[in-house]
């Protein structure tokens, strides 16, 4: 089987931040960052990111100055140090406690929008920083109590960790590994239409979470077999993509099909089909659509198309 490399970076990768993990427990450094007039804050409101130009199709991230951020920090949500961007400290701040945070900010600051809807249009560095902030704030908002004893947790490491005030257990942000794979038989690829897809015509690569004690290659073979009944042989790594929606990393693969008969799992898929390259090059003619351009699923398909033998 031909190993196909990624043709270009995936969305949400290429972070411009120096995460300065060695300074997270240095209280004096963190305090100086918070007091620095050059510091920038990335606001997150109910899992949405602050951007301008969304309606015009030219989105850009809006980061707040320290003075502007003070207003949304009054909403009482968590904050965390993300790192340094060209030497400037950058923090995430969650303002979900405010019913509407926009009136708290200077006029014409933009709007809070779903990052997934526009990530493919944002400069790569901005998309990565917004995704980083969204994922970390999602974890902070939902992990206020200890999973060991139920006690209240307090932030540590400049908001990048939590410690239980009762049993002292330490908790760190969780990222769930998920495999996503384009299965091919040489001339065709296997795509499925999930029961969870909001788009009624979209067909995409198969995907699933890695189980305990399972290698990535084993997860690829198991998920494909469970969802479609197709057996898989060789598995080749392609690339990865952070997917903090809410807390995953997508590990992309191309996989070789050893069988072609499809038997779908109706709990996971409404349909699954084999598609030729010609069909994928003109999905509209076939009455179906492909995943969004910013997704690793689309990248797996496009790179297979571009590497036609």
Summarize the biggest pleated sheet: 7 strands, mixed
Q: Would you count the extended β strands for me? A: 16
* Beta-strand content estimate: 25-35%
**Approximately how much helix is present in the residues?**
10-25%
Structural class by helix and strand composition: alpha+beta
Number of helices: 7
Low-confidence stretches: none
Q: What layout of secondary structure does this protein have?
A:
Blueprint: H1 27-35, E1 40-45, E2 48-52, E3 60-61, E4 64-65, H2 66-73, E5 79-85, E6 88-94, E7 111-113, H3 124-142, E8 153-156, E9 161-164, E10 170-171, E11 176-184, E12 188-194, E13 206-209, H4 216-228, E14 232-243, E15 248-257, E16 269-276, H5 277-281, H6 283-286, H7 296-306
Parallel strand pairs: 1-6, 11-15
Antiparallel strand pairs: 1-2, 1-4, 2-3, 2-7, 5-6, 8-9, 9-10, 11-12, 11-13, 12-16, 14-15
Can you put this structure into words, describing what you see?
This protein is of the alpha+beta class. 22% of the residues lie in helices and 30% in strands. The protein has helices spanning 27-35, 66-73, 124-142, 216-228, 277-281, 283-286, 296-306, and strands at 40-45, 48-52, 60-61, 64-65, 79-85, 88-94, 111-113, 153-156, 161-164, 170-171, 176-184, 188-194, 206-209, 232-243, 248-257, 269-276. The longest helix is centred in the middle third of the chain and has 19 residues, at 124-142. The protein is globular and about 60 Å long. The termini are close together.
């Amino acid at each position: 089987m031909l190993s196909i490399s990624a043709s270009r970076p995936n969305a949400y990768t290429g972070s411009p931040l120096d995460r300065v993990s060695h300074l997270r427990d240095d209280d004096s450094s963190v305090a100086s960052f918070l007091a620095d007039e050059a510091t920038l804050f990335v606001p997150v409101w109910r899992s949405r990111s602050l951007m301008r130009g969304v309606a015009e199709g030219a989105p850009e991230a809006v980061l707040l100055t320290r003075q502007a951020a003070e207003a949304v920090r009054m909403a009482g949500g968590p904050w965390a140090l993300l790192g340094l961007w060209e030497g400037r400290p950058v923090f995430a701040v969650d303002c979900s406690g405010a019913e509407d945070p926009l009136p708290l900010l200077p006029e014409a600051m933009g709007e809070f929008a779903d990052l997934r809807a526009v990530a493919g249009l944002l400069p790569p560095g901005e998309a990565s920083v917004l995704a980083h902030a969204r994922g970390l704030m999602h974890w902070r908002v939902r992990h206020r109590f200890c999973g060991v004893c139920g006690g209240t947790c307090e932030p540590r490491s400049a908001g990048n960790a939590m410690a239980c005030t009762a049993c002292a257990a330490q908790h760190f942000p969780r990222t769930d590994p998920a495999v996503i794979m384009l299965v091919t038989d040489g001339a065709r690829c296997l795509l499925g239409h999930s029961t969870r897809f909001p788009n009624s015509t979209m067909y995409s690569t198969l995907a699933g979470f890695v189980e305990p004690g399972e290698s990535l290659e084993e997860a690829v073979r198991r998920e494909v077999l469970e969802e479609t009944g197709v057996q898989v042989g060789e598995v080749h790594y392609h690339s990865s993509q952070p997917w903090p929606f809410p807390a995953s990393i997508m590990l992309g693969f191309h996989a070789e099909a050893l069988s072609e008969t499809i038997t779908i799992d109706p709990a996971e898929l409404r349909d699954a089909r084999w598609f030729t390259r010609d069909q994928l090059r003109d999905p509209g003619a076939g009455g179906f659509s492909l995943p969004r351009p910013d997704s690793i699923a689309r990248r797996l398909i496009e790179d297979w198309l571009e590497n036609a033998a």
